Amino acid sequence: MSFRLKYDPLVARLMSSWRLDDEALVDVYLRLDKLREESSSLLQRATAPFDGMVYEFSFVDWRIRFCEHRFLFLIVYGQDEETLIVASAIYAPRFGY
Amino acid sequence: MAESVLVRLADARVRTFAEELADARSLTDQTQLDGRAAELIDAHQFAPDELERGWTILAHAAEKMSAEARVRTGQLYYKVAALWVDLTAVLELLVVEKVHDPDVKAKGLQELPKAGARLKAISEKIWREWRWFAPEDAGRARGSEARGELIAGDELFARLARVSVEEWRQKVEARKAGGVS
Hints:
- The structure holds two protein chains of two kinds.
- Chain A is built from three helices and five strands.
- Chain A is of the alpha+beta class.
- Chain A has a five-stranded mixed β-sheet.
- In chain B, helix 3 (47-62) packs antiparallel against helix 4 (67-98) and helix 4 (67-98) runs antiparallel to helix 5 (102-129).
- The model of chain B has no long low-confidence stretch (mean pLDDT 87).
- Chain B is an all-alpha fold.
- The A-B interface holds A 5-17, 20, 22-23, 25-26, 28-30, 32-33, 46, 48-52, 54, 70, 72, 74, 76, 78-79, 83, 85, 87-96 and B 67-68, 71-72, 74-75, 78-79, 82, 86, 89, 127, 129-135, 137-138, 140-142, 144-146, 149-153, 156-157, 159-161, 171-172, 175-176, 181.
- Strand 1 (4-7) of chain A pairs antiparallel with strand 1 (151-152) of chain B.
């Protein structure tokens, strides 16, 4: 099953504060876009401290001194059950690992 | 807000330590350097305890925060913890490479990896256990859906990259084709 993927305005506000460059933004976009086709294998059920569906991924940016970009997204099913809503988003870079 | 003040204080503490570390690294007098390194090592041993205390206070406060404040505070606190991890590694290098006093070296080398391991564990705990999301987040997203406020991916990312939707799609296609966008 193929889903539509949409974003809550909160996610737009949070992501604009991340100040990712275009290369990293494309990476994030492509990873999230995978959810449309592969949600069943990519989504994880979190139970603590929150009960819900999350999508976590990371990638290493070799251009910026071994920076690892870590992301965590809260995903909610839309009312039509054909839409996945990205409801919240976390970003945490780690340097020098 | 109290939680923001706490994070700012923790961040300021990291910055002060980083400045002192940079100052110590620039010392050319060996006796002064050894003494400064010893002070920094002593001070550094409190970092994990301070972070643990901060975690306890912030985790409690997070229950009353808005979704946005919860996320931003968690991200800032994670960043503070990650900075402490990096500073431990730099301090360890300073002790290994520049400190000649065997007492300082022995103590530093013994204590720093322990502090580093604790700091890494705290950093990971923040990532794993911070109250990033809450049950009301799902309701808020469905409310946005009902009001027709959800944003399509191309539109959102084009806005973030400050390009048109068409230009954004070209960037994505270029990456998929293995080129540089």
